[in-house]
């Protein structure tokens, strides 16, 4: 039997590599690359779109660059916070993170200001894309409180897909588990704008509370406003 270890080399653009391994902005990195100050495996490379990987020897001004590793964070979002990096009407969720380079992080699948629960944050854009992209079928589970009793036939309607106002396609098949007449668990594999609220509006109901419990195999296990780093096993459960 042949066994082996397989290394996956992640390619990235040279400007991104320079940014990730220094404090430089994208514009500054691009400028230095175009000026011929960056060597890749001994050659001057002046195109910032050149694809490189961690095993390349990349030198800037005589200094060997090493990328910092990506960060993956789980947080329990409190009500009246927002998922963007800038405080608006409500404070940004990022204020809860007492770590360096918070501005490099983004949320993989935003929640509304009044929604609570599981939020994943990262600086790895490919990883978050796999969470958001419907093609990847990454399941998100929401606990939903409703203003009215759930009507017969909604489970089938959601499984089939419903027409949301302003959308050209039906929603993708969604699983609805009824906890009681006014509380349900809804599992989605896509994340249209206000999707849960709009799906229940489409069947004559109204969401009064919304809490995300799970993304893929990652479950919420910290208190409101608390966060922790994901384990590498958890990170890997989001399949590429
Ligand atoms: N669907 C919504 O309507 N709101 C959220 O915050 C998440 C999903």
- Largest sheet data: 9 strands, mixed
CATH A-level architecture of the largest domain: 2-Layer Sandwich
Mean pLDDT: 92
Helix content: 10-25%
Overall body shape: elongated
Radius of gyration, rounded?
22 Å
Q: Give start-end ranges of low-pLDDT stretches.
A: 1-8
Stated plainly, the CATH topology of the largest domain is called Pseudouridine synthase
How many structural domains in the coordinates? 2
Bound molecules: uracil
Task: Give the termini separation.
Answer: 27 Å
Q: By helix and strand content, what is the structural category?
A: alpha+beta
CATH H level, superfamily name of the largest domain: Pseudouridine synthase
Got a strand count? 15
What is the topological layout?
Layout: E1 12-13, H1 14-21, H2 26-34, E2 38-40, E3 43-44, E4 51-52, E5 58-60, E6 63-64, E7 72-77, E8 106-107, E9 116-122, H3 125-132, E10 140-146, H4 154-160, E11 175-180, E12 183-188, H5 195-202, E13 207-215, E14 218-219, E15 227-229, H6 232-236
Parallel strand pairs: 9-13
Antiparallel strand pairs: 1-4, 2-3, 2-5, 5-6, 7-9, 7-15, 8-9, 10-12, 10-13, 11-12, 13-14
Summarize the structure.
The protein is an alpha+beta fold.
């Amino acid at each position: 039997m042949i066994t082996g270890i397989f290394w996956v080399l992640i390619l990235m653009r040279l400007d991104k590599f320079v940014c990730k391994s220094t404090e430089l902005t994208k514009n500054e990195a691009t400028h230095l690359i175009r000026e011929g100050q960056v060597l890749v495996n001994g050659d001057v490379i002046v195109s910032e779109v050149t694809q490189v990987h961690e095993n390349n020897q990349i030198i800037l001004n005589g200094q060997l660059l090493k990328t910092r590793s990506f960060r993956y964070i789980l947080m329990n979002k409190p009500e009246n916070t927002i998922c963007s990096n800038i405080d608006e009407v409500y404070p940004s969720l990022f204020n809860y993170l007492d770590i360096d380079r918070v501005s490099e992080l983004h949320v993989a699948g935003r929640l509304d200001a009044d929604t609570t629960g599981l939020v994943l944050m990262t600086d790895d854009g490919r990883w978050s894309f796999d969470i958001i992209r419907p093609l990847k079928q990454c399941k998100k589970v929401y606990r939903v409180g409703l203003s009215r009793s759930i009507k017969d036939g909604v489970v089938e309607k959601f499984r089939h897909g419903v027409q949301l106002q302003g959308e050209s396609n039906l929603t993708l098949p969604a699983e609805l588990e009824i906890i009681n007449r006014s509380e349900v668990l809804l599992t989605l594999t896509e994340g249209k704008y206000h999707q849960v609220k709009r799906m229940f509006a489409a069947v004559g109901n109204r969401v009064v509370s919304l809490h995300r419990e799970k993304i893929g195999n990652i479950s919420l296990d910290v208190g409101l406003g608390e966060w922790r780093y994901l384990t590498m096993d958890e990170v890997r459960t989001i399949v590429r």
